[in-house]
Amino acid sequence: MSLPFASLFPSRPEFFQNFDFFDIANGVGYDVYFGLSNAGITATSTISSNYSGMPHKNPAAVVNVGIGSTFVELVDFDWDITFNLPKTIKGDILVQVPFGIITGGATTYTMKCTADIYHFDGVATETQIGSTATSEILQEAVGGATIKSHITTLKVNAATAVHFKRGETLRFSLKVLAWHANGGSAQNLLGGFGCNPQNSTDSKIELLVNDQTETQIITTNQPTQMAFHVPFVIPN
Fold first, then answer.
1. Residue 21's CB: how many other CB atoms inside 10 A?
2. Whole-number pLDDT of residue 18
3. How far apart are the first and last CA of the chain?
4. Which domains occur in the chain, in start order?
């Protein structure tokens, strides 16, 4: 008589994983993470509505930039996603970044935003994924202290699979850079990011030297939501 092995040893249940959207042709599923910042601390969340009531300030800094045609870094911030389960990333990583500059006076300036993405082992080692992505290069001529902002989508390709162990981090390092021409005199340029998960149009900034300063960095009615679209290999 045959034994009912199927009932004695039930099959292993299937593993289900939800994604925000799929790229079936490349075998990946995308999750979207939203960047945020408050009181000098940057973070990410998968649900934008979690932060609807949170006091929010976008990170920024003032740099005195001399005359010239070499880009000067105005601000550099990291946003981290730390995984509590093993993950494998492969494909195009997309970064939606609102960024802006406020000038100290009349000038003509050129600005851009860059993104570097790293695998951080949680201890001391950062390994870059792909290469640096750079936004459109924008030039503005202003007659006085003026906000100019832009939203860009940057793409970094993880051409080969990158495996993350539990507790390891996917790190996004974003920078705003600029140079200016203003009759040979130095100029204070304030650069910063929009990173409000709720995409509010009234987000303020906080200067690195004074977290009580509230100044607008993104033009009114322009997007302030920062989003990271991450491609994960779909388990077989």
1. 10
2. 84
3. 36
4. 30-233 (2.60.120)
Average pLDDT of the segment spanning 160-180: 95
Query: What confidence category does residue 49 fall into, taking pLDDT thresholds of 50, 70 and 90?
Result: low
Query: What is the length of the chain?
Result: 236
- Identify which of 100, 229, 92, 96 has the alpha carbon closest to the alpha carbon of residue 154: 96
Q: Which amino acid is present at 212?
A: Q
User: Residue 183: which pLDDT band, with cuts at 50, 70 and 90?
Assistant: low
Of 111, 33, 123, give the one whose Cα is nearest residue 79: 33
Residue 8 dihedral angles phi and psi, to the nearest 5°: -70, -35
Helix (H, G, I), strand (E, B) or coil at 79: strand
User: Would you state the pLDDT for residue 5?
Assistant: 46
**DSSP of 205-231:** EEETTEEEEEEE-S-TTS---EEEEEE
Q: pTM value? A: 0.85
Burial of 27 (0-12, 13-18, 19+ CB in 10 A): middle
Q: Choose among 161, 162, 174: nearest CA to 121.
A: 162
- 21-23 and 28-38 beta bridge pairing: antiparallel
> Mean of the per-residue pLDDT values for the chain?
82
Residue 111's DSSP bridge partners are 138, 178
Output the CA torsion sign for 190, 195, 200, 204: negative
User: Per the structure block, which two tokens stand in for 108?
Assistant: 């003509």
Which residue is associated with the tokens 């939606």?
96
* Better-scored residue on pLDDT, 233 or 107: 233
Between CA 187 and CA 105 the distance in angstroms is 7
Share of the chain above pLDDT 90, in %: 40
